[in-house]
Amino acid sequence: MPRRIISKARRLVAGRKAVVVLLAGFVLGMVGLAIGGTTLVYTSSENFCSTSCHEMTTNVAMEYKGTVHDKNRTGVRATCPDCHVPHAPIPLYIRKMGAVNDLWGHLVTHSIDTREKFLAKRQMLAERVWTYMKGNDSRECRGCHNAANMDPERQSEKAQVRHAKAKREKMTCIDCHFAIAHEEPQGGVGPQELEVDKSLISRGAIF
Ligand code: HEC
Ligand code: HEC
Ligand code: HEC
Question: What is the pTM for the complete model shown?
């Protein structure tokens, strides 16, 4: 059987048909790449994240409106993907594969399709984000906030004191700055109480 397939393939590769097969493969590959790339870009837009399903629109997206990352003095914003979609390629692909779970919840299990169901799951969902952010040392926040470039002189006294403490006690941004884009979940632990394997966090020159 394999031999027959091989000889068939040989015949196909020889002669003029080979050019057609190669060209067809190339065109299909390009179409695939274009579809993949467009999907990746589109599903990483603020528009997609905040308006394409009511689970987000009626909960987290509504709460985000008017927060400091949405509207501020300078008009520089952080939108959903800035905080939730990794920028480096490998973590980005891993996150995108995880989105299959979101799609399953939306289409099949309807896991958070009412406000009540969402609130019941909120602590768990928040803990997932906090654990992720603690695990990568608030990488997405640091994509914009470079701790080494923060000028303590220009920060409030409270911020200066706490940031010095953060440096001493090896804390990460999300330990203190949680619930900055959405309402705080009620009745569970906060990020500081969450146990995360700290040895995984590289703290190099933070703060
Ligand atoms: C896309 C860039 C970007 C990302 C990502 C981002 N921020 Fe910000 N953040 C800003 C900008 C811009 C401001 C300042 C807005 C202003 O006041 O002009 C800001 C303001 C802040 C402030 C000051 C709030 C205040 O009331 O003055 C804190 C605290 C903060 N961010 C924490 C975080 C944390 C924690 C994360 C990660 C979960 C994060 N940011 C992610 C851009 C970003
Ligand atoms: C130990 C807790 C703690 C940690 C960890 C921490 N912060 Fe803060 N941060 C504070 C407090 C408290 C303030 C002051 C808030 C206020 O004045 O209401 C502050 C203020 C800020 C502000 C506003 C500064 C100003 O004066 O306008 C920014 C921006 C900020 N933090 C970013 C970060 C980033 C980025 C990280 C991680 C690299 C981080 N913080 C880690 C506690 C913390
Ligand atoms: C400045 C960073 C930031 C932005 C912008 C942001 N988020 Fe979040 N998001 C977080 C953090 C941090 C958490 C973890 C819970 C918390 O601290 O509020 C979270 C939690 C969530 C959760 C889990 C439920 C919950 O409330 O804990 C969902 C879903 C979510 N975000 C979706 C979105 C969507 C959709 C947008 C855009 C409309 C968005 N986020 C914008 C930082 C952000």
Answer: 0.91
